[in-house]
Amino acid sequence: MPPARKRTRSYDPVRTRAAVLAQFGHVRQAVGALDERRLALPTRLGDWTVRDLAAHLATTVASIGRTPEQDGPAEPDPPLLDCPAATATHADAVAGDARAPAEATPDLAGLLTRTGEDLARHLSDAPPDRTPAPRAGATALTGHLVTRTVELVVHTDDLNAAVPGLGIPLDRQALAVCTRMLADTLAGKAPGGSTEVRVPPFAVVQCGEGPRHTRGTPPHVVETDPLTWIRLATGRTAWRDAVAAGEVSASGERADLGPHLPLLG
User: Which residues pair with 248 in a beta bridge?
Assistant: First the structure.
């Protein structure tokens, strides 16, 4: 008999919608002001440029309101591991989706503005249990927005890394959703309770085979900040480099998350 599926974390529909709108708004405002020289800069996603990545985000966000809809309950949300677009490892697989609008729409600022306006209209009256028309793996709107939030946060960090001084803000709720989703993905990928992973102020999960700790201070603890955790989970930063730089605190013989990272890829 297969193991029972672990209970998934619930996300507030209103806050999740607000997080997507806010984070895309930050991207739209910052990228829309870039000149052609900076739009042509390379990113850490293979041979994608800033323009490619921004157009891909517009396509990703537009997909939220583009599918036919039906009423009623959706299938369980798919694991984040089934949503590879948030990781650089799969850049080639989604490059076509990114570059089609980039090449066809020279007015990138206009594309971003229209996408944001369309999304706001769509989310203003869509029910939280809306699901796309029947298909394998169809997901309720809130679950879909959670995965889009992860992609928006991860790629916002990619854009900031590509353009010196760009400084796109990370919406607090979007950062919280992304951090928690990735922490839960770790717990699903490495089930167990021997190690406690803390990403204050947003997430605490237990993972790893071995004795489960139930009282007092756990003997095996990993702690880091949200942005470092996101970079570790998506392969932007290597575990050993983050530990060496003091960006991660890891205590106990079972506190090495290196074998489980990155989560996406």
Answer: 224
Query: Secondary structure of 229-248 in the HEC alphabet?
Result: HHHHHCCCCCHHHHHHCCCE
Helix (H, G, I), strand (E, B) or coil at 69: strand
The CA dihedral of 72, 75, 79, 84, to the nearest 10 degrees, is: -80
Whether the CB-CB separation of 19 and 174 falls below 8 Å is answered with yes
Quick: pLDDT tens for 92-142.
Answer: 433 344 454 556 567 899 999 999 999 999 888 666 555 443 343 445 788
Query: Do 55 and 99 contact (CB within 8 A), yes or no?
Result: yes
For the chain, give percent helix, strand, coil, nearest 5. 50, 10, 40
pTM of the predicted protein model: 0.84
Which residue segments constitute the domains of the chain, with CATH numbers given? 13-170 (1.20.120.450), 176-260 (3.30.1050.40)
